[in-house]
């Protein structure tokens, strides 16, 4: 019955123009209970997770590093262009970095008119330009500005992990989650046409900064199925409740501790929590919950009190800017309906 409810809800999202295709996955009481896929995609599609990369890769790798004694929440992160930044400030989006910067445009400016738009992320000069742009961003950061959601902070965190652990993020994430994307482009949900790259994207990261950084970075770049995302989130939820899991529950609880939230902010370490005035997780979600959204139309919420994990993955970006407000309206309705059905 729950799977039928999920299919009906996905059909509603398609009907209201929130997205053309979607997948949902739900767990309750420590085990999966339902899933559904709808739309013109493969029956078991891979989705561009966008900013779910932040908690899935960066957050989990730091959790595991702390659990193994290889890192501490008192650590600082070396960054170009300034003094080291506290790890917890970067994880909780309070390191004073801007939310976003157009890194491909910075590369164009650095390389000059003759090469603008004519480089690839593999070019040495392009990589040097990206390093320079990140150093400028770090040099102008103002840690006293309070909480400000920042892709740039997670780009720096991703680079710090690669330096510390000596491998690319893709390889590091494969240590705890199966992220070996299929070669068949038809397995991926499309994410629309990119004007900068002059092609329709399918199995290629939508985020232009992640593309410029080689296809994956600390803020975006992971592709996965709804089941894979759900089982990762369920593993963390089980650990936090003291059930068998692949990660230390004490560390998960430490990262999710509400005490990390700054005044008038909702971020803990690597994760968001419900906004008091209305959460994308719905009106029924408990204040003790944690979650995260992705720009492409993805989300995961772990309701710790109700013991429910809900994953919603879509490719809403293929519909352009009008899908944004429609998705914002749909998400809380979706979560409330799932909760009522459970």
SSE blueprint:
Layout: H1 2-15, E1 22-28, E2 31-38, E3 47-48, H2 53-67, E4 76-77, E5 85-86, H3 87-91, H4 103-111, H5 124-139, H6 151-165, H7 169-173, E6 193-194, E7 199-200, H8 208-212, E8 223-224, H9 226-240, H10 249-255, E9 290-294, E10 298-303, E11 308-314, H11 323-341
Antiparallel strand pairs: 1-2, 1-11, 3-8, 4-5, 6-7, 9-10, 10-11
How would you describe this protein?
With 342 residues, the protein is of the alpha+beta class. It has a single domain (2-341), classed as DD-peptidase/beta-lactamase superfamily (Beta-lactamase, 3-Layer(aba) Sandwich), CATH 3.40.710.10. Helix content is 37%, strand content 13%. The N and C termini lie close together (10 Å). The model has no long low-confidence stretch (mean pLDDT 95).
Biggest sheet features? 5 strands, antiparallel
Strand order across the biggest sheet?
Answer: 2-1-11-10-9
Give the termini distance in whole angstroms.
10 Å
Average the pLDDT over all residues and give the rounded result.
95
Strand content: 5-15%
Task: Sketch the topology as an H/E string, one letter per element.
Answer: HEEEHEEHHHHHEEHEHHEEEH
Using the alpha-carbon principal axes, give the shape.
Answer: globular
CATH architecture: 3-Layer(aba) Sandwich
Low-confidence stretches: none
Helix content: 25-40%
CATH structural fold name? Beta-lactamase
CATH superfamily: DD-peptidase/beta-lactamase superfamily
């Amino acid at each position: 019955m729950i799977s039928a409810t999920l299919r009906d809800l996905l059909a509603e999202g398609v009907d209201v123009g929130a997205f053309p295709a979607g997948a949902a996955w739900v767990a309750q009481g420590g085990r999966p209970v339902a899933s559904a896929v709808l739309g013109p995609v493969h029956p078991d599609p891979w989705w561009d997770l966008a900013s779910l990369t932040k908690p899935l890769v960066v957050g989990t790798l730091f959790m595991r590093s702390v659990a193994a004694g290889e890192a501490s929440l008192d650590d600082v992160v070396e960054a170009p262009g300034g003094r080291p930044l506290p790890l917890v400030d970067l994880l909780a989006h309070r390191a004073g970095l801007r939310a976003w910067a157009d890194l491909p445009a910075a590369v164009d400016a650095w390389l000059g008119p003759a090469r603008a738009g004519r480089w690839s992320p593999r070019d040495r000069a392009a990589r040097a330009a990206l390093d320079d742009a990140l150093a400028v961003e770090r040099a102008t950061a103002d840690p006293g500005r309070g909480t400000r959601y920042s892709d740039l902070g997670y780009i720096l965190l991703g680079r710090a992990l690669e330096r510390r652990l000596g491998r690319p993020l893709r390889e590091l994430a494969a240590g705890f989650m199966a992220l070996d994307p299929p070669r068949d482009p038809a397995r991926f949900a499309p994410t629309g046409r990119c004007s900068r790259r002059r092609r329709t994207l399918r199995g290629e990261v939508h985020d232009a900064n992640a593309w410029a950084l080689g296809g994956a970075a600390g803020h975006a770049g992971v592709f996965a199925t709804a089941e894979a995302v759900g089982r990762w989130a369920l593993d963390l939820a089980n650990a936090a409740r003291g059930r068998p899991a692949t990660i230390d529950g004490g560390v998960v609880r430490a990262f999710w501790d509400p005490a990390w939230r700054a005044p008038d902010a909702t971020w803990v370490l690597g994760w968001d929590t419900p906004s008091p005035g209305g959460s994308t997780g719905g009106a029924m979600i408990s204040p003790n919950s944690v979650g995260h959204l992705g720009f492409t139309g993805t989300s995961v919420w772990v309701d710790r009190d109700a013991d429910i994990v809900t994953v919603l993955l879509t490719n809403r970006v293929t519909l352009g800017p009008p899908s944004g407000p429609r998705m914002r309206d749909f998400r809380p309705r979706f979560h409330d309906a799932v909760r009522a059905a459970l």
